[in-house]
Amino acid sequence: MPKNVFSRLSHLNWEIMPSHKRVLQLTGGGSYAITLPKSWVKRLDIAEGATLNVEVLEDGSLLITPEGRQLARDTSEIVIEDSPVVVRDIVGSYLMGFNIIKLKSSKPFKSETINEIRKCVRRLAGAEIIEELPNSMEIQILLDPEAVTPDKVLRRMGSLVNSMVSDSLASVMNSDLNLAEKSLQRDEEVDRHYFTLVRIVRFAIRDPEIAKKIGLSPLRLMDFRLVAKFLEDSGDHAASVSMEVLKNKGLQIPENLLSIFKQLGDIVTKVGIESIEAFLSEDVSLALKVLEKRNEYSKLYEMMLSSLSYTPDNIRNYMTKIVLNIERINENNIDIAELTAPITIRSPQ
User: Fold this and answer.
1) Strands 136-141, 100-104: pairing kind
2) What's 36's DSSP letter?
């Protein structure tokens, strides 16, 4: 997937709303008061004497909305002109929550650029090209953040990644090129779910009403975003394992290495499933069960590295790359499990 999609896109045109500071004042009746920004009052067309709802959020911040009025959804658009990295900018705009992405070029788009754009759009849930001209293209995103809940997206993403990991490990064990290809084919779908979840999380953090409707606090939403990144990274490492299998087809691995490798793979596969389940269900006991497997995994990992030092160079190089990718997958699983206990402890009963 494109890297650095959250980097600052300085050449894109969007409006940044200014922040406002207010001094807390003590009123005659012993209550406290602050004034509201005039620009905000005018923008929402709030009349004098109108009733405002004030809600205290979990993080201590206040949500102020006019009574009987829903928060406006982000229907903004963005124009990207003569971008040297158009695919990255499309993804970045999608994740930032823009619903209309307009691409403009001073020269007609090259055929390879158009193909890259089409491929990129296919990877973004709810996105479609609604206009295509020689010098411009328009992409519309039809994705209701309230209709797609983060837990369903994350569960599906976890299932896809665990399948990728399982197939890539099996392809090493059996020198199975078909399984390696099968694992690689899921990588694009994992990215699509990742982009979807990040977009939903950003929507919900910006609009507390959405977060309230889907039943997730801003802090929990941030954890969802973090877990999604761990999963996306594990998917990339599973893909790397599969690519190594395809590049080294026919290479025979000694039985003693395969025995250790199978034990490593069994732990990583099981921990991958349990860590996601622990996070989604906020099950501390299951999370602790995952964390208890670290010592067992570490011993096997060291045993594998030690055994590799006595193998021919081609086998040692091949298996070392694979084992290092597995190590990163295992670290991601552990990081997901470690998020679970603090979440449950701080959640009110």
Assistant:
1) antiparallel
2) P
pLDDT band at 74 (very low <50, low <70, confident <90, very high): very low
Arithmetic mean of pLDDT, 119-129: 91
Q: List residues bridging with 62 in a β-sheet.
A: 56
In the chain, % helix, strand, coil (3-state, to 5) comes to 60, 10, 30
Query: For position 143, what pLDDT does the model report?
Result: 81
For the beta carbon of residue 115, count every other beta carbon within 10 angstroms.
11
Helix (H) or strand (E) holding 103: strand 100-104
Q: Is the dihedral of CA 158, 163, 164, 168 positive or negative?
A: positive
Give pLDDT, residue 76.
Answer: 80
- pLDDT tens per residue, range 247-291: 998 788 899 999 999 999 999 999 999 999 999 999 999 999 999
Q: Does 3.40.50.10610 match the CATH number of domain 150-346? A: no
pLDDT-derived band at 218 (thresholds 50, 70, 90) equals confident
In angstroms, the Cα distances linking 202 to 2, 41, 138, 166 are 19, 25, 22, 31
Q: List the beta bridge partners of residue 138.
A: 102, 131
Residue type, 115: N
For residue 325, which of 279, 263, 264 has the smallest C-alpha distance?
A: 264
36 Cβ contact list (under 8 Å, min separation 6): 64
Average pLDDT, rounded, for the chain: 85
Instruction: Give the alpha-carbon dihedral of 342, 343, 344, 345, to 10 degrees.
Output: 40
Output the six-digit token pair for 282.
């906020």
Tokens read off for 106: 């001073």
DSSP code string of 220-270:
HHHHHHHHHHHHHHHHHHHHHHHHHHHHTTTPPPPHHHHHHHHHHHHHHHH
* Beta strands 77-81; 100-104: pairing state: parallel
